[in-house]
Specification:
This protein is an alpha/beta fold. It is built from 13 helices and 5 strands. It is globular, with a radius of gyration of 22 Å.
C-alpha cells in the first residue's frame, strides 16, 4: 500500500492490503502496545475501503474520499473513543452524557451517504466496559451490509472472548528508530538530529515520539526524572522512597504533558512501567511497602490498581499507596513504584538503565523501555 501512512509494520500492512483488495472482513481487531500506530493503520484501512480509485491503487490519497478520511470528516467513517473522567468507552444511548456504543450502532444502521462502504473505528476498545462490549457483540456478529468495524486495543485480554472470536486479528509490534524518524519528518515537527534522538527515546512507539516532538517540555521532564533515578542508585531504601514521593509531581506533569496533545491518536498516555502494573512481584512489593509504612495491605487487582477497599493510614507520612487521587497520579505512582522495586531488589541502576551502548548504536543510558 503505497498510500499508507503507517511505517515499520510490514506484516500488518500486507494484511490490510489484502483486505482492501477484498473481500474485507466484517470485524477487525488491531492489537499492539500503545503508540505503535494502531489508529493510523485503522485509518489507512478506512481510506482504502472508502477510496474511489482502482483497487490496486487504494488508498490513492488524492480522491475526495481519501481527503475526507484524512481530515476525519468522511460521512461514512464513524469514530468512537474513550470519554469521561474514567476514560472508558461507554454504552451510551439517547440519554447518556457521552457518546457510546449504542450511538455508534445507531449510525451504522443508517444508509451510506456516499453509496459505498462504511467503516467504524473504536479506539482503545479494551477500555470498553462489559455492558458496552455486550451491546456491540450482536453488531460484530451480524453487521449491516458493507460495514467494517475496526477495534484498536492495547491488551486484547481485556476484551470478552466472544468479542475476540468474532474479529480478524492483526498484531502490531514496536517500530524501529529509523521508521520513527521518518514519521516525525513527515509531520515536520522538529529537525533531523532531534528526530533521531526522539526515535531512540520512544522505545519503538511513534505516537510517543510525536508527543515528545509536540511538547518539548516533556523531554526536559523526562531527563530530570532520569537524573533523579540515577541519583537514587547508591541511596538507601528510605531515601529512595522519599525521593520517589518528591518526584511524583514531576511524573504527573510529564503524564499530563504527553496526554494533552492536539491529537488523541498521536499523544498516548504514559506507557507502562518497567515491570507493568500487573506484575506479581510488583504487587507483592507494593503490599510489602504498605505494611512497612504503617498502611493496611490493600488487595491488588491483576492490573496493579487497588480494589475498592482503600488503605487506612496510621500516620501522615509516606506515599498513599492505597489511593488514586487522579488518573495521572495513579499512573505516575505505578511507574515510580516499579522503578523503586527494581532498585530495591537489585541495588543497582543497571537493572533499569544499562550503562553500555549496544551494537545498534542506541544510547542505553536513556532507557526507552521505561517510558
Amino acid at each position: 500500500m503505497e498510500g499508507a501512512r503507517t511505517r515499520g509494520q510490514a506484516a500488518a500492512l500486507a494484511a490490510v492490503a489484502a483486505m482492501v483488495r477484498g473481500p474485507a472482513p466484517q470485524a477487525v481487531l488491531f492489537v499492539g502496545p500503545d503508540g505503535v500506530g494502531k489508529t493510523t493503520l485503522a485509518l489507512d484501512l478506512a481510506a482504502g475501503l472508502l477510496c474511489t480509485a482502482a483497487p490496486e491503487d487504494r488508498p490513492c490519497r488524492q480522491c475526495r474520499a481519501c481527503r475526507l478520511v484524512e481530515h476525519g470528516t468522511h460521512p461514512d467513517l464513524h469514530l468512537l473513543g474513550p470519554a469521561g473522567p474514567g476514560r472508558q468507552v461507554v454504552i451510551g444511548g439517547p440519554d447518556a452524557k457521552y457518546r457510546g456504543v449504542k450511538d455508534l450502532i445507531g449510525d451504522l444502521l443508517l444508509m451510506p451517504v456516499e453509496g459505498g462502504a462504511r467503516v467504524a473505528i473504536v479506539e482503545a476498545a479494551d477500555r470498553m466496559n462489559e455492558d458496552a462490549q455486550s451491546a456491540l457483540l450482536k453488531t460484530l456478529e451480524e453487521p449491516p451490509a458493507g460495514v467494517t468495524i475496526i477495534l484498536c486495543a492495547d491488551a486484547e485480554a481485556r476484551l470478552l472472548p466472544t468479542v475476540r472470536s468474532r474479529c480478524f486479528r492483526v498484531r502490531l509490534g514496536l517500530v524501529g528508530p529509523r521508521d520513527i524518524e521518518a514519521i516525525i519528518a513527515d509531520h515536520g515537527l522538529t529537525d533531523p538530529p532531534t528526530a533521531a534522538r526522539l526515535g531512540r527515546l520512544a522505545g519503538g512507539r511513534p505516537g510517543l515520539a510525536l508527543a515528545y516532538a509536540r511538547t518539548p517540555d516533556a523531554v526536559l521532564l523526562r531527563a530530570e526524572l532520569t537524573r533523579v533515578l540515577l541519583d537514587m542508585t547508591d541511596a538507601g531504601a528510605g531515601v529512595r522512597l522519599a525521593a520517589a514521593r518528591a518526584a511524583i509531581p514531576r511524573a504527573i506533569s510529564l503524564s499530563v504533558a504527553l496526554s494533552s496533545g492536539p491529537c488523541c491518536t498521536c499523544s498516548p498516555p504514559m506507557p507502562s512501567p518497567l515491570l507493568g502494573g500487573g506484575h506479581p512481584s510488583y504487587r507483592a512489593y507494593r503490599q510489602n511497602v504498605a505494611r512497612r509504612s504503617g498502611y493496611r495491605a490493600t488487595p491488588i487487582r491483576r492490573d496493579g490498581h487497588p480494589r475498592r477497599r482503600s488503605a487506612t493510614p496510621s500516620s501522615e507520612d509516606t506515599v498513599t499507596l492505597g489511593q488514586r487521587p487522579s488518573q495521572h497520579t495513579g499512573r505516575a505512582e505505578r511507574y515510580l513504584g516499579a522503578v523503586q522495586w527494581s532498585f530495591v531488589l537489585f541495588g543497582t541502576v543497571q537493572s533499569a538503565v544499562p550503562a553500555t551502548t549496544g551494537a545498534t548504536g542506541r544510547n542505553r543510558c536513556e532507557p526507552s523501555s521505561a517510558w
